[in-house]
Amino acid sequence: MSPSDPSTTLSDHSPISRRPTWLLLPPLAWLGAFFFVPLLLVLAISFATRGTYGGVEWTFSFANYVTMLDPLYLKIYLRSLALAVATTALCLLLGFPLAYYIARAPARWQGIWLLLVIIPFWTNFLVRTYAWMFILRTEGLMNTLLMGMGLIEHPIEILYSDTAVLIGLVYGYLPFMVLPLYAAVERLDRSVVEAAWDLYAPAWAVFRRVIWPLTKPGVIAGCILVFIPSLGAFITPDLLGGARTMMVGNLIQHEYLVARDWPFGSAISFVLMGLVLLGMLVYLKVERARQGDETVSWAGGDRQ
Asked: What is the per-residue DSSP string for 55-111?
């Protein structure tokens, strides 16, 4: 055993090697009291029934989950899923070039660009959504400018539609995509990209085989940060979509605050959370299998 072996200099019983597990107690207690306990309570309510005048009657039933099989609620789920996927895709298409540009900008400019990205967070999200209402309405800024330039003759009715909701979601969650992508691109070794160019690889091949795989952790983090909140959004669809566009978040809000059907609202919440967790588990399984296949192919190539 060489002197450089860590086992000769660091004992398993040394103070440095001991894991201070007691440090986990405060965060675990906080999560238990303010996350897991309320979550279990909501789960229990989802199997109860609505009282005659609202409230909860503790009568065990699966009726709330069966009700969600109604085509009306399935349509709301599909609309929410479609808008969340479209929001994530657009944020990725817009955010990746922006993040790459910021990460490759001179160091003195990177802070300024990042400041411009996070400036919207300085304003309340509700205020920013109301601003989009003034921009997109029939007599709003967008139609006024387009008609003033002679590009259109009649106002474009875009407010209170899925398109308006999509614009609001992309605007609201774009920074959540840019920041993880910037962190991933900023850590990217420029010499690897330069080597690809030196080997006369075309631009698309450089992006697909070098830049994209090395920045994939940032892409995954950004997609998760955008997809999950956009799937359960309710302020943006409520203001920009009006009564024409209802998403799952609006349905949950309606069941809790308007219909006062807490059991059904709780069931909708758990189905939404279950779908998100199921999607993440499927992705992780597929990604793990893909990485295993790549490892086997590399090992086979080495043996050859």
From this structure: SEE----SHHHHHTTSHHHHHHHHHHHHHHHHHHHHHHHHHHHHHHHHHHS-HHHHH
Give me the DSSP letters along 165-187.
HHHHHHHHHHHHHHHHHHHHHHT
- Phi, then psi, of 8 in degrees rounded to 5: -85, -20
Spatial contact of 252 and 269, defined as CB atoms under 8 Å apart: yes
| pTM given for the model | 0.84
Residue among 241, 96, 256 at smallest CA distance from 178: 96
State whether residue 39 is helix, strand or coil. helix
Number of CB atoms found within 10 A of residue 214's CB: 16
The pLDDT tens digits along the chain (304 residues) read 444 454 444 455 555 456 678 888 888 999 899 989 999 999 999 999 988 887 788 889 899 999 988 998 999 999 999 999 999 999 999 999 999 999 999 988 999 999 999 998 888 888 999 999 999 998 888 989 988 888 888 888 888 989 999 999 999 999 999 999 999 999 988 888 888 888 888 889 889 889 999 999 899 999 999 999 999 898 999 999 887 788 999 999 999 988 899 999 999 999 988 888 888 888 888 778 777 766 655 555 555 5
SS3 50: strand
What residue spans define the domains of the chain? Answer: 67-284
Is domain 67-284 in CATH 1.20.1250.20, yes or no?
no
The gap from C-alpha 109 to its chain's centroid, in whole angstroms, comes to 27
Residue 51 DSSP SS3: coil
